[in-house]
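pinned: reference chain
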Amino acid sequence: MTEPPQTAEPTTPEPEAPAPLPDGRAPQTPAAVRRRAVLAGTAVSVLLILAIVFGSRLLRDFDSALLPYAVATVFLAFGVAYRYTVWISAPGARRLFRQGWGSFFSAANFRRAPTALPKMIATYLGFQKFLGARSHARWAAHQLLFWGCVLAALITFPLTWGWFTFTSGTGDGPGYEMRIWGFKVLGFDSLNLVGWLMFHGLDIAAVLVIAGASYFLWRRMKDRGAITGQRFAYDLIPLLALIVISVTGLLLTFSSIFLHGGGYEFLAILHMVSVVFTLIYIPFGKFFHIVQRPAAVGMQLFKYTSRRKDEELQTCRRCHEPIDTPDYVDNLRGTMKDLKLDFDEWAEYCPRCKRVLRGNAYLTHVKKGFQ
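pinned: its structure tokens
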């Protein structure tokens, strides 16, 4: 008798090792990125909790009625750190992060152009002049929204954390003192203009936010281009949340002044819920671009300073018109290689020649097949 032929047992092929990145580093696995993001979020949250405890003088100046807001800011800190860590783990974002912040903190750039950084912060972050080129109305609405949110944050966060306190020497005013970390910084009369502005800063911020958010909400209901690409959760919920926060905040003031506190408790709970929801939503929604924008400022600074090195601009390979500085073109090609885009040489062509070459390729390889 002959023995039956032996068959080899099927083996599971070993997974291929991920290809190294263009700079030679090993690629990061999603699990490793998430672990590092959790650690970063936890560290930032712990630091914020310590800052709240010590900034409020061991909670002596902390208002327990504001505890839900403070807890929401801790979740906000965790979410921002987590999302930011995940964001800069992507190859393109990591290069943007390094180049941007490298230019931001570069002593050589400061010596070469000492006014460049303040100029970029004022024009790109503060007044956002790039939006004015698209639409003056959108720029004005964005300014109202931006400065309203900034004013509200500057008032709300320190008060929530117990860093700011307002005390009256007589118990019922009109003289008040504003203290920061327990130190008196300003005394004012609540009955004059300064006192009115101090106690109604959030109302002013609410009016600015309502005006700006209402314009964008109206535009997303009427503009065909905005309607086509908008998503309810990503584009409309942030605007609605800001309007709800602002309206309920104004209604609290209205209730205390004109209704002698009628309905104040319900409005306070509604306002708190809307604020807490928005703070937790910020890291994972459209508002996250607020955190990303400073890195873009650094990239603008990198472009600005590289153009001031008195070096010749790199020219288009086809028409020989200037494109940008060699440093900027090399950085763009490096980003495209990091993203494994196999057409990084197109960075050496001007926009017009790119359109011409794409059109010729279409006529040669696609349109020809239908003749």
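why pinned: The longest strand covers residues 183-189. Confidence is low (pLDDT under 50) at residues 7-18.
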